[in-house]
């Protein structure tokens, strides 16, 4: 840099610092969005995803799947967490109806870690609000 122009040098330093901060923020923001990808699809649900079904998990294909943010989903009969083990974001926390709550552990190929599926009993067309989180 030409030190004969101190104002220009300060501007360049500020711009470089802002660009570094922007790149750092973009790089860090996506780290905790969803569980890591690995393993096979189960019940038509891709690995690392939470899947929503209009029927039983075992008898239908999911009508909505996501590995990222989980929006409110309407028309749900059952839910399956095919996420992978990742501290702090491998469980799906469900909220439904007036006060209904459930927590789905990630599916590890067995039921030893807790339920990975949830069925809304006789209810149909349930609206859910869900999020990835840590232990239940």
How would you concisely characterize the structure shown here?
The protein has one helix at 6-29; strands at residues 50-53, 64-66, 73-76, 78-81, 91-96, 100-104, 117-119, 126-133.
Identify the notable features of this structure and list them briefly.
signal; alpha+beta; four-stranded antiparallel β-sheet; Peptidase inhibitor family I36; 2 domains; 27% strand
Which helices and strands occur, and which strands form pairs?
Elements: H1 6-29, E1 50-53, E2 64-66, E3 73-76, E4 78-81, E5 91-96, E6 100-104, E7 117-119, E8 126-133
Antiparallel strand pairs: 1-2, 1-4, 3-8, 4-7, 5-6, 5-8
| Uncertain ranges | 18-38
Q: How many strand units?
A: 8
Q: On the 0-100 scale, what is the average pLDDT?
A: 73
Based on the structure, what is the oligomeric state of the protein chains? Answer: single chain
Q: Provide the spatial order of strands within the biggest beta sheet.
A: 2-1-4-7
Proportion of residues in extended strands: 25-35%
Radius of gyration, rounded? Answer: 21 Å
**Residues in helices, as a percent range:** 10-25%
Order of helices and strands: HEEEEEEEE
- Count, helices: 1
| Overall geometry | globular
Overall number of domains? 2
């Amino acid at each position: 840099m030409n030190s004969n122009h101190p104002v220009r040098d300060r501007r360049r330093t500020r711009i470089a610092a802002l660009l570094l901060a922007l790149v750092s923020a973009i790089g860090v923001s996506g780290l905790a969005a969803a569980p890591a990808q690995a393993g096979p699809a189960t019940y038509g649900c891709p690995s690392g995803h939470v899947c929503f079904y209009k029927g039983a998990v075992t008898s239908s294909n999911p009508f909505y799947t996501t590995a990222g943010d989980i929006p409110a989903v309407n028309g749900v009969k059952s839910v399956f967490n095919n996420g992978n083990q990742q501290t702090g974001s491998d469980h799906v926390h469900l909220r439904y109806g007036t006060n209904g709550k459930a927590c789905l552990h990630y599916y590890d190929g067995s039921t030893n870690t807790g339920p990975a599926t949830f069925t809304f009993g006789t209810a149909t067309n349930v609206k859910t609000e869900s999020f990835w989180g840590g232990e239940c």
